[in-house]
From TrEMBL:
<feature type="active site" description="Proton donor">
    <location>
        <position position="223"/>
    </location>
</feature>
<dbReference type="InterPro" id="IPR006710">
    <property type="entry name" value="Glyco_hydro_43"/>
</dbReference>
<feature type="active site" description="Proton acceptor">
    <location>
        <position position="57"/>
    </location>
</feature>
<dbReference type="GO" id="GO:0005975">
    <property type="term" value="P:carbohydrate metabolic process"/>
</dbReference>
<keyword id="KW-0378">Hydrolase</keyword>
<keyword id="KW-0326">Glycosidase</keyword>
<dbReference type="GO" id="GO:0004553">
    <property type="term" value="F:hydrolase activity, hydrolyzing O-glycosyl compounds"/>
</dbReference>
<dbReference type="InterPro" id="IPR050727">
    <property type="entry name" value="GH43_arabinanases"/>
</dbReference>
<comment type="pathway">
    <text>Glycan metabolism; L-arabinan degradation.</text>
</comment>
<dbReference type="Pfam" id="PF04616">
    <property type="entry name" value="Glyco_hydro_43"/>
</dbReference>
<comment type="similarity">
    <text>Belongs to the glycosyl hydrolase 43 family.</text>
</comment>
<protein>
    <submittedName>
        <fullName>Family 43 glycosylhydrolase</fullName>
    </submittedName>
</protein>
<feature type="compositionally biased region" description="Gly residues">
    <location>
        <begin position="28"/>
        <end position="39"/>
    </location>
</feature>
<feature type="site" description="Important for catalytic activity, responsible for pKa modulation of the active site Glu and correct orientation of both the proton donor and substrate">
    <location>
        <position position="169"/>
    </location>
</feature>
<dbReference type="InterPro" id="IPR023296">
    <property type="entry name" value="Glyco_hydro_beta-prop_sf"/>
</dbReference>
<feature type="region of interest" description="Disordered">
    <location>
        <begin position="22"/>
        <end position="48"/>
    </location>
</feature>
């Protein structure tokens, strides 16, 4: 472990020379990102935001080619931007998932993708979302042979008939040979519908629903969920609060756990998530520098056994940059609960460690 004084000194150099990327996309679907090609030395530390631009609702995969690929909500006419990295610290733009937006649900935008590798294919679940008319929001699925696409759309999987009017924020999880999709969001009494988090079993290829019945697994006060298995427990992460009110945003990440993938999920304080999700154990919340910390990605383990996840946040000093990409290390308490140091974003952190083939020998 490097000494703290060394980390701080190194971080100043990294921030000036080789930290996260502010690179602007060249355009949709051009695939010009190179991710460093393995020639860029791994940085010792990084600073948040790790990419200083609007990249909300991240999802990440460690692909078969050894690189990391990160996908985010639609930006202008870039239909799910894709970023590429060799070390999860330095990111370059790699193209767009879709050359054209899927048009089967009009007057919507592409939100909150979820990337997976299923049966030798890259499978992307996505939301076609409508902010003002939530019943118009749907979840679709697309497939590609390459992590940078282009993805071939396979159309709609779920809509408001699936049991929750907020049909957004898909999360795929495979367990004991079964494939599941989780999704959902908040209640809205003013708009007259009930929210909540639901799940359903998928077909073997992950491209269709196996059976028509969905089950409610968490209450209507979280969204942007992610399921993670560690030891004997399944962990259900979700975001609660307001996502999009700039420095006034109250988004924060909470978690519950269960010994059964189908629940019940219970917080550290004993709160059952199906009844009241927003009062579960808080993993991450804002501080004097960042607000609206939420919609976390999958957890990635580096070559030293450390766990990391990505999320978005508003940087209070640079609100015009939107919901920027953040990264923090997840640690685990002796009784098996995830936490982030101080429960708030790190301004400077030791970087994830990924070794090349020579270093692994």
């Amino acid at each position: 472990m490097k000494k703290i004084s060394f980390l701080i000194a190194t971080a100043l150099c990294i921030m000036a020379c080789s930290g996260g990327s502010d690179e602007q996309p060249d355009g949709p679907g051009n695939g010009n990102g190179n991710g460093g090609g393995g020639s860029t030395p791994n940085p010792v530390s990084f600073s948040n935001p790790i990419v200083g631009k609007q990249l909300p609702d991240p999802t990440i995969i460690h692909a078969a080619d050894g690189n990391f690929y990160l996908y985010v909500t639609q930006q202008d006419n870039i239909y799910i931007p894709i970023y590429k990295s060799t070390n999860m610290t330095q990111w370059t733009y790699a193209g767009a998932a879709f050359l054209q937006k899927p048009n089967w649900q009009p007057d919507t935008r592409l939100w909150a993708p979820d990337i997976n590798y299923i049966n030798g294919k890259y499978v992307l679940y996505y939301t076609l979302g409508h902010w003002d008319l939530p019943k118009n929001s749907c979840i679709g699925v697309a497939v590609s042979d390459s992590p940078v696409g282009p993805f071939t759309d396979h159309g709609k999987l779920l809509d408001y008939n699936s049991g929750t009017m907020q049909c957004i924020d898909p999360c795929y999880f495979e367990d004991n040979g079964k494939k599941y999709l989780f999704w959902g969001s908040y209640n809205s009494t003013s708009k007259g519908y009930e929210g909540g988090i639901r799940y359903v079993e998928l077909s073997a290829d992950g491209l269709s629903i196996k059976g028509a019945v969905s089950e409610k697994i968490a209450g209507p006060s979280i969204e942007g969920i992610m399921v993670h298995k560690r030891g004997n427990y399944y962990y259900l992460f979700g975001s609660t609060g307001s996502c999009c009110e700039e420095e006034r945003s109250t988004y924060r990440v909470v978690v519950g756990r269960s010994k059964n993938i189908e629940g019940p999920y219970v917080g550290k304080n004993g709160t059952v998530m199906k009844e009241n999700s927003s009062y579960n154990e808080v993993v991450l919340q804002g501080n004097n520098l960042f607000a609206g910390t939420g919609h976390n990605s999958e957890i990635i383990t580096d070559d030293e056994g450390n766990d990391w996840f990505f999320y978005h946040a508003w940087q209070k000093a640079k609100i015009d940059n939107g919901r920027q990409l953040m990264c923090d290390r997840i640690q685990w308490s002796s009784d098996g609960w995830p936490y982030i140091t101080n429960g708030t974003p790190a301004s400077v952190s030791r970087a994830p460690v990924f070794k090349n083939e020579e270093e692994k020998e």
